[in-house]
Here is the input.
Amino acid sequence: MKDKDLKKLVKELVKAIKRDLAIDWTNQEVIKARMRTNVRLLLLRNNYPYEEVDKITERIYEQAFFLYKDYDLRYSEK
Here is the structure.
């Protein structure tokens, strides 16, 4: 991917992840599944190699978990 395309994809991923955040989202399986699905769809739409999508989706989810597990929705940019 070109840097410009990668930057755009990362912005879309962050936006999708933040959109799915909810109070105590780390304990709600439906929210976690929706987050993974949205990330997977964004990767596929941006022509990410199909063979790598599941592995990358899991890595992105893990990063989101550690970045946003204590995210205070009251001060979010929504």
